[in-house]
């Protein structure tokens, strides 16, 4: 389902993703159900010299928190979509305050 939602995102959003992997995990390390996703990397706006030999940035979506947040499969698709947009925005250097202003947080 994550891959299907990723495929539905606009090309101009995903074409700029360089050296990024998408991962699903059951839960965050602390075991809570509060966090739906995580961007683990260096935002594009904060990169200096970046290139060969760098480990890829990661966008992680947490399965159990997503399942706990919704009651229906259509809602799950929507929540995955929003989480992907949110975490990809962090890659581009958009912080939570900006995302909130744009209606994505």
What does this structure look like?
- With 105 residues, the protein is α+β, with helices and mostly antiparallel strands.
- The protein is built from 5 helices and 3 strands, in the order H-H-E-E-E-H-H-H.
- It has helices spanning 2-8, 11-14, 63-69, 73-91, 96-102, and strands spanning 20-25, 37-40, 57-62.
- The chain starts with a helix and ends with a helix.
- The mean pLDDT is 92.
Helix-strand blueprint:
Layout: H1 2-8, H2 11-14, E1 20-25, E2 37-40, E3 57-62, H3 63-69, H4 73-91, H5 96-102
Parallel strand pairs: 1-3
Antiparallel strand pairs: 2-3
Mean pLDDT: 92
Q: What is the strand tally?
A: 3
Spatial ordering of strands, largest sheet = 1-3-2
Number of helices: 5
Q: What best-fitting shape do the alpha-carbon axes yield?
A: globular
In short:
The chain has 105 residues and is α+β, with helices and mostly antiparallel strands. The protein is 42% helix and 15% strand.
Spell out the key features of this protein:
3-stranded mixed beta sheet; globular; 42% helix; 105 residues
């Amino acid at each position: 389902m994550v891959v299907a939602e990723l495929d539905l995102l606009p090309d101009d959003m995903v074409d700029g993703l360089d050296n990024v992997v998408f991962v699903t995990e059951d839960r965050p390390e602390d075991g809570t159900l509060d966090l739906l996703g995580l961007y683990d990397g260096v935002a594009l706006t904060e990169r200096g010299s970046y290139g060969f030999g760098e480990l890829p940035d990661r966008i992680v979506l947490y399965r159990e928190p997503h399942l706990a947040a919704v009651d229906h499969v259509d809602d799950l698709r929507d929540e995955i979509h929003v989480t992907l947009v949110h975490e990809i925005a962090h890659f581009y250097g958009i912080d939570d305050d900006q995302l909130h202003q744009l209606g994505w947080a």
